[in-house]
Design goal:
Blueprint: E1 3-6, E2 13-15, E3 26-28, H1 32-38, E4 41-44, E5 60-62, H2 63-66, H3 69-75, H4 77-93, H5 102-117, E6 123-124, E7 130-133, E8 138-140, H6 147-159
Parallel strand pairs: 1-4, 4-5
Antiparallel strand pairs: 2-3, 2-6, 7-8
């Protein structure tokens, strides 16, 4: 059984115009038809990263419905910090004179979204913050451009044996 995981870093962007009677902006996924056809079950991190049109499908599940994310983060905190430290070391080794310009690339992606993919929408590259631990004031923002979200997604996917 193939279980696909759609995490915090998966949605490309969020449509803020399409938010009627809904708590979160509607996320856009790359190739949702491919995701549906190649998976027996799709596990979304949370309802906020699942397009509204997919939420009631019988093969769609939500990770935060079955797992207390605070307990999960506590259980795997050493693994998470180890991965974040590896990432920080990698960034320190990147040549400062690199020709890669994140800001320009983000603007190019934004232009593509605005002109070709979603000219109808008021989009942004992130969803609403999810409060994880109210006592500590911890928040996670679903966003494809956040490397910590990629780390969390990979750790969850690996530890839960998701595809």
């Amino acid at each position: 059984m193939r279980k696909a995981f759609v995490g915090l870093s998966t949605p490309l962007f969020y449509d803020y115009n399409n938010k009627k009677n809904w708590k979160y902006p509607n996320p856009f996924l790359e190739s949702p038809l491919g995701l549906v056809s190649m998976s027996d079950e799709i596990i979304f991190f949370d309802r906020s990263v699942c397009p509204k049109s997919m939420q009631k499908l019988p093969f769609v599940k939500f990770f935060t419905d079955k797992v207390d994310i605070n307990d999960y983060l506590e259980k795997y905190h050493e693994q998470i910090y180890e991965e974040i430290n590896k990432q920080n070391e990698m960034y320190c080794r990147i040549d400062k004179k690199s020709t890669f310009n994140f800001e320009n690339n983000f603007k190019n992606i934004g232009n593509l979204l605005r002109e070709q993919i979603a000219p109808f929408g008021n989009w942004d590259d992130h969803g609403r913050c999810l409060q994880i631990n109210p006592k500590l004031g911890m928040y996670i923002t679903p966003r494809s451009y956040n490397s910590i979200n990629v780390i969390l997604d990979n750790i969850i996917s690996h530890n839960e044996n998701f595809d």
